Amino acid sequence: MIYCAALSSHTDFTAWQDSARALCAARTAPEAISWRGPDDPVSLFEDMGLPLAQCPAPTREVKAPKAFIEMARRVICHRDPERFSRLYRILYRLQDNPALIKNQVDTDIIWLSECDKAIRRDRHKMHAFIRFRKIAESGAAREQFAAWFEPTHRIITLGAPFFMRRFAHMDWAIFTPDGSAYWDGLDLTYGAGANRDAVPSEDAVEEQWKTYFASIFNPARLKIGAMQAEMPKKYWKNLPEAALIPDLIAGAQRRSRAMHHSLGAPNPLARTLKAREGVTGPVTAPQTLPQLGEALQGCTRCPLYRDASQPVCGVGPARADLMIVGEQPGDAEDVAGKPFIGPAGQVLDAALGAAGIDRAHSYMTNAVKHFKYEVKGGKRVHRSPDNGDIDHCRWWLDTERKIVKPKVILALGNSALRGLTGKSLKVSAYRGQTLPARDGSVIIPTFHPAYLLRLPNRDDAQKASRDFHQDFKFAASSLQAAQVKAELQI
Ligand code: URA
Question: I need a labelling partner for 244 at 20 to 30 A (CA). Which of 37, 50, 110, 266 fits?
Answer without folding.
Answer: 266
